[in-house]
From TrEMBL:
Boundaries of every Photolyase/cryptochrome alpha/beta domain copy: 1-186
Matching InterPro entries: Crypto/Photolyase_N_sf, DNA_photolyase_N, Rossmann-like_a/b/a_fold
Taxonomic path: Eukaryota, Sar, Stramenopiles, Ochrophyta, Raphidophyceae
Pfam families the UniProt entry points to: DNA_photolyase
Protein name in the entry: Photolyase/cryptochrome alpha/beta domain-containing protein
Length: 221
């Protein structure tokens, strides 16, 4: 199956990974991961997580409305309630078997996702667990530009996709294609910055990706 990994881009419009799966008849999963190492970053505030929680719930409702996303050909999502982080930096989180979030005392504690799979854990551990349940062929995500922890995380994921292994996590992937989409005009891992202006101008001139409403006709059946 294909996995669309949302990272911080909880939106339906101009979303490269979602637009890409619209072109395919492959079974797919739309995944969001609450990652402890990313949540622990000093730049992460409770308001950020609150915003993501609201976005996930709205995105789930709209995707379910657009395409009745589940059929025998699509994975069943993990039911989960988003974790919360208070303004002092404390986090209410834990584990219910590796790949799910646990209920919190927040207003979202009753949230159950129909079209999204929401997980809690380190990214490669979550991906490996999903891969054991149903082989992942492509992982599609935006190319994130952020703090050092996100850069290190992406390197681990890239290695896992390439080798099927990260530390003690055995994915047995046999090779997962990691497809990254530029969504900011900034490109990571460039060998040279000489062409930055040219690349940026090309990015800004490119048309927006089609809306995810296309899922209703392209991927739901």
């Amino acid at each position: 199956m294909d996995v669309v990994w949302l990272k911080r881009d909880v939106r339906l419009h101009d979303h490269g990974p979602l637009a890409e799966i619209c072109k395919s008849n492959n079974p797919f999963m739309v995944l969001y991961i609450y990652e402890p190492d990313q949540l622990a970053e000093h730049s992460v505030h409770g308001s950020h997580i609150h915003f993501v929680n609201e976005g996930l719930i709205e995105m789930d409702l709209k995707l379910a409305e657009y395409c009745g996303i589940f059929s025998d050909d699509h994975p069943t999502p993990t039911q989960a309630a988003p974790p919360q982080r208070d303004d002092d930096g404390g986090k209410e989180d834990g584990s219910l078997g590796g790949c799910v979030t646990q209920p919190s005392d927040s207003d979202y504690s009753g949230a159950r996702f129909r079209a999204l799979t929401v997980a809690y854990g380190e990214a490669t551990a979550v991906l490996a667990a999903l891969h054991r349940q149903r082989p992942v062929r492509r992982l599609l995500a935006h190319m994130e530009t952020g703090h050092l922890a996100s850069y290190a995380r992406d390197r681990r994921v890239r290695r896992w996709c390439r080798e099927g292994k990260e530390g003690e996590v055995e994915g047995g992937t046999g090779g997962v294609r990691f497809v990254e989409f530029n969504h900011s005009g900034v490109t990571r891992r460039l060998k040279s910055r000489d062409a930055f202006s040219t690349n940026l101008e090309a990015f800004l001139a490119a048309p927006q990706h089609p809306s995810a409403e296309l899922l209703a006709g392209g991927a739901g059946g």
